[in-house]
Amino acid sequence: MGTETLATGETYRMEWDSDLEAVLFTWTSFASGEQFREGANTILEYFETNDVSKLIVDTSGIEAHDDDDQDWLEDEWTPAMIDAGMEYNCVVYPESAIAQMDRDRMQDRLEALPYDALWTDSMEEAKEWMSER
Q1: CB-based contacts of 5-8 (< 8 A; 24+ apart in sequence)
Q2: CA within 20 to 30 Å of 24's CA: 10, 60, 109, 123, which one?
């Protein structure tokens, strides 16, 4: 089984993990503004056109999101992803104080939404958690 590449962009790679039945989205370099939204919307478009409920986003290669991008993720993109079928989301973040502040802010703002989420600094933990869903 394994993974199949679904899409690649200048700053991201999106794969299907058939073992987990999940989309794996990796930010390969920093993106903001339109470039960030293009990458995130690639995930949304896939969820809208496929029967998918699981997403792992690997942000371990980037430090933090711009405030505008974070607001957009929280206010628009995440609710749209839930509407498109996302039930489980795991975010792998880098081990840094800045990334932890980013994570804490997002967790606080997203915790009331109707989906299960895990925030971790370990891809192994993310995959293990997702395999149990």
Answers
A1: 6/46, 7/42, 7/46
A2: 109
Q: How far apart are CA 40 and CA 34, in angstroms?
A: 10
- The pLDDT tens digits of the residues spanning 96-113 come to 665 566 666 666 665 666
Q: What is the pTM of this model?
A: 0.86
**Burial zone of 112 (CB within 10 Å; 0-12 exposed, 13-18 middle, 19+ buried):** exposed
- State in words which class domain 3-131 has: alpha beta
Parallel, antiparallel or unpaired: strands 54-58 and 22-27? parallel
Residue type, position 30, single letter? F
Cα 89 from chain centroid (whole Å)? 7
Asked if 58 and 92 touch (Cβ cutoff 8 Å), the reply is yes
Residue 64's CB is within 10 A of a number of other CB atoms, namely: 19
